UniProtKB/TrEMBL annotation:
Record-given protein name: Ion-translocating oxidoreductase complex subunit C
Co-factor binding details: Binds 2 [4Fe-4S] clusters per subunit.
Residue numbers spanned by region Disordered: 1-22, 454-482
Any one cellular-component term (Gene Ontology): plasma membrane
Subcellular location, record wording: Cell inner membrane
Function per UniProt: Part of a membrane-bound complex that couples electron transfer with translocation of ions across the membrane.
Organism: Vreelandella sedimenti
Annotated positions binding [4Fe-4S] cluster 2: C370, C399, C402, C405
Domain 4Fe-4S ferredoxin-type, chain residue ranges per copy: 351-380, 390-419
């Protein structure tokens, strides 16, 4: 146990975790109907592969991964497929809870590619909130050397206790999931970071540590402070490493996963069980039976809250996620997804709307609490002035949207709302710029290809003419040969473009899971097309050369 390093700022909002951490983690009743959105992860939505009327079991694939950054979707109840639309698939349950599992894998002996494929086909995504596909995250080892796997069990946001309860019940399994992930990414160390407000989970982990092998596991208990569960903040706190501005934990040799994701990884590998349910914290003053439940994906939020004694006359709003970073639900007729870690059914007194905004008094409170050492006051001015150059200079994109600055602002300025809007605007501009660059690139590539094809045609014509003029046993001169060297260079360049596009796509998707990846996916597809064309040309040229040499 140690707590040697620190990140700047931070706040101490009321924890309000006692409301949901006093009872055991139990299964929510099996829903009679589920609605499964095709987009429950960062990247491209999944593509349906079932039709209305099809019979499915729990674990049947109902939508396939689409593009590189995407995730498969599985039936979470057995029954009959109802509506299949462009955004979601519904299933009417048969009450049988009949399962379809993949064959179990012994991870100790399985090849990494088999483990990776298992994560892919099981639809595993990060369950901490971002929903980044786990199989893509694991591929970070293609570009980085990973030394340490961090289990992010800080769960610093008020109200949420899903990881706490997961660890109390499944500490051994979470550590086994961590061992699988360490094997996949080549990590030599596993470090658990957990806040000191979870004594039962800490005790469960201490007991489980002794059984966890082969990679050594270290448990670090840190003081409770929001937002210690931010990846950068936790890495600083545990390992005294600074993730560079605009970079990823992998840049300092670290991969982070939360306990729920590691448990899902174990279930996928050891039990052949795809991601069909998750732990959800159900809390807030407007329900009478708060706690944590295993909930089948696609379950209606309304149904779930009603099962926990929802008092509709007291209900003011339902927040998905925590009170700092979560979002209010516009309707209760929405399903639980892979991203739903917490539902707060709050009364008006419990989470009242913020008072009206007043002008900034330049008190500097926001700056003193920022965990990234940004200047929130300046970012606020520049965001409202839409001064994008200044926003970039003041590292807007390093803001983790923790809301600590808004929380302390005496003028009640919705600072984090300003930052989100500014980020969206700048992202949109970047996408437009990338599109323009992409179009230019394609045009140039096409021109170069046409020129090369014309040159090759001429070369072939000249070679034929020379052949006809030459006595039959005279070989072609070097200048008459097909320009194999040029084609090899073009092929290598096309290959490098594919790699570059793959890297960019993976990096952007991981950095900012909310961003649209359409354009980068298109860029990758074009690079792949170009590579295919270059491969074909090279093969044809080689064939031509060998036929010339043999004639
Ligand atoms: S906390 Fe609010 S009032 Fe104080 S400097 Fe920051 S933005 Fe201005
Ligand atoms: S929301 Fe952004 S600017 Fe505000 S405290 Fe958090 S990281 Fe700093």
């Amino acid at each position: 146990m140690s707590n040697a390093f620190d990140f700047p700022g931070g706040i101490y909002p009321p924890e309000r975790k006692q409301r949901s951490n006093q009872s055991a983690l139990i299964e929510a009743p099996l829903p009679s109907r589920v609605t499964l959105p095709l987009q429950q992860h960062s990247g491209q939505p999944a593509t349906p592969c079932v039709a209305q009327g099809d019979t499915v079991k729990v674990g049947s694939v109902i939508a396939k991964r689409e593009g590189m950054v995407s995730s498969a979707l599985h039936a979470s109840i057995s029954g009959t497929v109802g509506e299949v639309s462009t955004t979601q698939i519904s299933i009417d349950g048969d009450g049988q809870d009949a399962w379809l599992r993949l064959p179990p894998l012994e991870w100790q002996y399985a090849e990494p590619h088999a483990l990776l494929e298992r994560l892919n086909e099981s639809g595993i995504v990060g369950l901490g909130g971002a929903g980044f596909p786990a199989h893509i995250k694991a591929r970070v080892v293609e570009r980085h050397t990973i030394d340490t796997l961090v289990i992010n069990a800080a769960e610093c946001e008020p109200y949420i206790t899903a990881d706490d309860l997961t660890l109390r019940h499944y500490a051994n399994e979470v550590l086994e999931g961590a061992q699988i992930t360490a094997k996949l990414c080549g990590a030599q160390h596993i470090v658990i970071g957990i806040e000191d407000n979870k004594p039962e989970a800490i005790d469960a982990l201490k007991q489980a540590l002794t059984n966890s092998q082969p990679v050594p596991v270290e448990l670090t208990v840190i003081a409770t402070r929001y937002p210690s569960g931010g990846e950068r903040q936790l890495i600083k706190k545990l390992l005294d490493l600074n993730v560079p501005s605009g970079g990823l934990p992998a840049d300092v040799g670290v991969l982070c996963h939360n306990p729920g994701t590691l448990l899902a990884i174990l279930h996928a590998v050891r039990d052949g069980q795809p991601l069909v349910s998750r732990t959800v914290t159900l809390t807030g003053e407007a329900i009478t039976q708060p706690g944590n439940r295993w909930v089948r994906l696609g379950t209606s939020v309304r149904e779930l809250l009603e099962q926990t004694g929802l008092n509709t006359s007291e209900l003011h709003q339902v927040i998905q996620g925590g009170p700092m970073m979560g979002t209010p639900l516009l309707t209760l007729d929405t399903p639980v997804t892979k991203l739903t870690n917490c539902l707060i059914a709050a009364t008006l007194e419990e989470l009242p709307p913020p008072p009206a905004e007043s002008p900034c008094i330049r008190c500097g409170e926001c700056e003193s609490v920022c965990p990234v050492a940004l200047l929130p006051q300046q970012l606020h001015w520049y965001a409202r002035a839409q001064d994008d150059a200044k926003l970039e200079r003041y590292h807007l994109f390093d803001c983790i949207e923790c809301g600590a600055c808004s929380y302390v602002c005496p003028s009640h300025i919705p600072l984090v709302v300003d930052y989100r809007e500014a980020k969206s605007r700048i992202r949109l501009q970047r996408i437009e710029a990338t599109k323009a660059e992409h179009a230019k690139h394609r045009f140039e590539f096409r021109q170069a290809r046409l020129a090369r094809e014309e040159a090759e045609k001429q070369a072939r014509k000249q070679a034929r003419q020379a052949q006809q003029r030459r006595p039959s046993n005279t070989a072609a001169t070097n200048s008459e040969k097909v320009d194999l060297r040029g084609l090899r260079i073009a092929h290598a360049a096309a290959k490098a473009s594919v790699k570059k596009a793959e890297k960019t796509l993976a990096r952007v998707a991981q950095e900012d899971p909310k961003q649209s990846l359409d354009d980068l996916e298109m860029q990758l597809a074009t690079a792949q097309e170009n590579l295919k064309a270059a491969e074909l040309q090279l093969a044809q040229a080689r064939e031509q050369q060998s036929s010339e040499e043999s004639s």
